[in-house]
Amino acid sequence: MKKQISYWKEFSKGLWEINPTFKQVLGMCPTLAVTVSAINGVAMALATTFVLIFSSMLISTIRKLVPSQVRIAAYIVIIATFVTIADFVMKAKFPELSKALGPFVPLIVVNCVILGRAEAFASKNNPLRSLLDALGNGTGFLIALTLMGSIRELLGNRTIFGYQLLPESFQPLLIMILPAGAFITLGLMMGLANIYMNKKKKSEIDSVISKYKESKATFEESKA
Amino acid sequence: MNNSIKMIIVLTSIALVSGVVLSGVSNWAAPHIESNRIAETEAAIYLVHNNARSYKKIETEFGKVYKVYDEEGIPIGYSIVSEGNGFQGKIRLMIGVDTALTKITAIEILEQVETPGLGSRITEDEFKNQFRNLSAQPSVNWVKGKTPEKPNEIEAITGATISSKSVCAIINDVLQKARIEKQSNKL
Q1: For B154-183, what is each residue's pLDDT tens digit?
Q2: CA B150, CA B172: separation in Å to the nearest integer?
Q3: Domain that holds residue B118
Q4: Is residue B170 part of a domain?
Q5: Distance of CA B54 to CAs B4, B77, B153, B186, Å?
Q6: Which among A44, A81, A152 is the top mutation candidate for probing chain B, defined by the most B β-carbons within 10 Å of its own β-carbon?
Q7: How many domains does chain B contain in total?
Q8: Which chain B residues have a beta carbon less than 8 Å from that of A85?
């Protein structure tokens, strides 16, 4: 029996600790392709989260029935079904939304965040935990995509969410809205995230060492 | 139970359930989607001709043409639905032209599956407005990275030259067909 962590932790770990984009490095294809503007990033992340939540819960519910040899095939069918349902419902009832999201929807099937979470988490945990995990990962994905979209839109088009933030005198960096800009932004953001994590780790180690030295000193003092 | 039989049963039932659910959803959604599509096409007829008040549908060999009339019943031009290949799929658009088929009044993109953020910008006003009152004589041309100089030129979207080119090609293609029809007095 593995150690159970709290429900809050189950949700919040997706935000940073195992952030789909920065830590698991999953779902890169849509991440790189659609983050030309902040609103695109938000739309893609919301659509993905929707599918992630439902497929995680269903996969977790039937996890004991599916033989392990055919699990991937089963997951793909389930995920594709949810994506298609979402696509149909949007086309029928929300044509405007569907028009805006249209090209993103088929991309969700191949988003490996969903399959990754199904395989790594939902197939081993109960539906409630899977729901929280899906919500957390979806939110983490949302944060990462919004950040990337904002940076690329700001530098490539002077705007964020369509609001102009940089002055006209700023020459837009066209490369930022082209595919190369996606790689540059993602690389720099992952680098920064790693620098931050390394610093944090180092300060933790330092504090442990200094505590040890202190306790050793007091111990030797008392001995003397 | 034998494991391989279990595998077959599980996978088959998942696929079956998925198929049943999808066909149900599809049946429910199809009429809605169709009516949305018709409503959108009708709205686009008037979008590409600001002064149009009524229209008459003409079936031609190359698709549907809507002849539009102003409030006094005088024909002011045509709204033509056309589709062709884009960068990675079909682009369907509504083209508004005058009665002589020489000047484009406006265009409206009805359907497209271009790259989000790049090719999909053909749906944005910045691109579409270039076609307002654009001369289609002898054909619509595109330029890259500079401001258009001639009355029949538009500027292609940076990073989406193929999508921009495709829109021009679709327009040129359908206008050419329409001109032939016009010569034989079918329009």
Answers
A1: 999 888 889 999 999 999 999 988 888 888
A2: 16
A3: 48-183
A4: yes
A5: 65, 11, 30, 19
A6: A81
A7: 1
A8: 21-22, 25
